[in-house]
Amino acid sequence: MKTKLTLLLVALLSSPAGQAMACSVCFGAKDSQSTKHMAVAIWFMMGAVMSVLGGFGAFGLHLWRHANTPLEPHQQIVDEDLKPYE
Length: 86
What we know:
Blueprint: H1 2-14, H2 16-20, H3 24-27, H4 33-67, H5 73-78
């Protein structure tokens, strides 16, 4: 009995009739509103992730550019070796 029930379940799920019982979200119906909304949500999340990654990249570029700038004149005096004047 258990074997027959298992075989029936496998046959039902692997047949086209099993796919017809799926809802529009699981089946991925192209004209369903929930499928369209899910696509919009995926694009929104991609945009959010890319904007955060872009912010990290821009901050890294900012640090790299400002690491190579020359020192201001008042900072050069502070960093100067004053031992010859003692």
